[in-house]
Amino acid sequence: MKRALLVTLLLEAALVIAWSSGFIGGKLSADTPGVFLVLFWRFLIASLLLIPFLFQALRRGLSAAQFRRQAIIGFFGMTVYLAAGLKGIELGVPAGLAALIGALQPMATAVLAGPLLGEKVGRRQWFGLLLGFAGVTLAVGGNSGDAPVWAYGLCLLGMASLVGATLYAKARGDTTAMLPTLAIHCIVATPVFLVLTLLEGNLVPPLESDFVFAVGWFIVFSTLGGYGLYWVCLKRTTATRVSSLIYLTPPVTMIWAWAMFGEALSAAGWAGFALCLLGVALANRRRHQGDSLDGAVGIAPASDRSARSP
After folding, report:
1. Read out DSSP for the chain?
2. Which of 108, 114, 183, 192 fits a disulfide with 54 by CB distance 3.0 to 4.6 angstroms?
3. Dist. CA 209–CA 38, nearest whole Å
4. Residue 292 pLDDT > 50
């Protein structure tokens, strides 16, 4: 049990670091002809790299129903989430405010996880979630920007889309392996970003170091790392627990930015990081010392798991 808990904690720590890399990828893309062009090539190349694993899974019995479920999860959890959020930022929503909107995900997931998944969210967890949100607010600041109203709606749509994909994935309890899962998600995303890229310009990739590095960064850290670990952790723990980790990504992103771009770390940022850590710790703390491993790592109770359709 202790070993399983340790593995879960290590996976969750890696998830926070990898998920934060997506924001750095967005900054790297700022020096390229367009973020949609970067994302199109990201998903096209990732699809080509991952498709052998999908063929292997198909030979081993991956069903049409499993493929369809993963296509739905990928469309909402990856394609809509990224397209809507990035378009909102492009239209003028400040990155900090976009991060705040994204930080609503843990609370939205907790609200819906009870009636939809049977996950119990106690007072201590709610306090931790609220504390984590306060930490994000303190860390990223309060610039409201001057974007059109519907641009903020796009950021909300992206957040809601990831919440929906998370709850759907947890409810269905799909056992598809990580690499075939990512292959399906990338295959679904590629044609969408193909269209979005064509609407903005052309598909020809500039053979420049900034572009190649941004695409490679997204594939390794954000696709294989961020999304891969997100779905792996979701299979091991509850939707509320995994979503609560999102609170740690804006502060960790600040550390990434400091290390890579020399951006200053403010006192408010460090204070926000501390609040986020405390909030996540409270949100995921065991109620009693004698809890089983299920309680320790947040795995849904047996009654919930047996209720899921395959």
Report:
1. -HHHHHHHHHHHHHHHHHHHHHHHHHHHHTTSS-HHHHHHHHHHHHHHHHHHHHHHHHHTT--HHHHHHHHHHHIIIIIIHHHHHHHHHHTT--HHHHHHHHTTHHHHHHHHHHHHH-----HHHHHHHHHHHHHHHHHH--------HHHHHHHHHHHHHHHHHHHHHHHHT----HHHHHHHHHHHHHHHHHHHHHHHS--PPP--HHHHHHHHHIIIIIIIIIIHHHHHHHHHS-HHHHHHGGGGHHHHHHHHHHHHH-----HHHHHHHHHHHHHHHHHT--SSTT--HHHHHTPPPHHHHHHS--
2. 183
3. 13
4. no
CA distance 203 to 43: 13
Each residue's pLDDT tens digit, 231-257: 999 988 888 888 888 888 877 877 887
pLDDT digits (tens, 9 = 90+) for 91-127: 777 766 777 787 788 888 888 887 777 777 777 777 8
